[in-house]
Amino acid sequence: MTPAIQLTNVEKSFGITKVIQNVTLSVAQGERHALIGPNGAGKSTTFNLISGYMKPTAGSILLRGEEISGLRPFQINRRGLSRSFQVTNVFANMTVWENLRCAVLWATGHRYSFWKNVDNLPEVRERTAQILEDIHLTSRRDIPAGLLTYAEQRALEIGITIAGGANVILLDEPTAGMSNAETERAVALIRRLTEGRTLLIVEHDMSVVFGLADRISVLVYGQVIASGTPDEIRGNPKVKEAYLGEEAA
Ligand SMILES: Nc1ncnc2c1ncn2[C@@H]1O[C@H](COP(=O)(O)OP(=O)(O)O)[C@@H](O)[C@H]1O
Ligand SMILES: [Mg+2]
């Protein structure tokens, strides 16, 4: 089967600094794949390359077999890939409902127009309400997103990311800054919302990574040093030495 995402010999330089070197990475359709590695390894940059926010200096990036490097983020989004950001990216002054509706409108091909009451579009209203329910924020629907707790904002962001029904979801450190209990809830949410889709997730919490991922790739200094099942990664001496150390033991 054609992989959902295929990077081949991808490189990214900023000036003379090569931040991504010769990265080859394959994510199968329907797989939950975790990208791990130390700070500054190039994980967010890899997400920027896949989602079109940055252009690779060299190499090829395929989305379900089609070359996407060089396309704009919205074009890649239209082809069924959606990503969240490491830093929360919701509209703080808009209500929870408006934030989600905005994402649903975009996804359903509607353009905002001030003379139309978009809440009268039943498919938009229903889909927005459904996602709101899915992310457990129905009771918070009318408050500005900026007033949500941090964990709720991250849940909203996951909702926005999946609102478009994209098949391939990229989440960059969705549980960063959360308590253990919040992390557990967020992981359950991610697991449920990505059912039947492809997930590529950057995550620093190894219990989350090893509990959630079907496969794991390890990025160190811009290079993939290993890809495999959680057991293969746990037992890989190169990975232990370069990154996991005692953590996975
Ligand atoms: N726009 C940029 N310009 C210059 N250097 C950058 C830029 N974005 C990231 N970098 C550098 O690339 C390296 C990888 O960063 P990043 O992808 O954010 O790492 P990670 O997400 O794995 O922590 C870091 O050394 C960072 O300073
Ligand atoms: Mg990062």
TrEMBL record:
Keyword ATP-binding on entry: yes
DNA-binding among keywords: no
Keywords: ATP-binding, Nucleotide-binding, Transport
Pfam families on file: ABC_tran, BCA_ABC_TP_C
InterPro entries on file: AAA+_ATPase, ABC_AA/LPS_Transport, ABC_transporter-like_ATP-bd, BCA_ABC_TP_C, P-loop_NTPase
Any GO molecular function: ATP hydrolysis activity
The organism's place on the tree of life at top rank: Bacteria
GO CC annotations on file: plasma membrane
ABC transporter domain sequence ranges: 5-246
Chain's role: Involved in beta-(1-->2)glucan export. Transmembrane domains (TMD) form a pore in the inner membrane and the ATP-binding domain (NBD) is responsible for energy generation.
Name this polypeptide is given: ABC transporter ATP-binding protein
Species of provenance: Rhodopseudomonas palustris
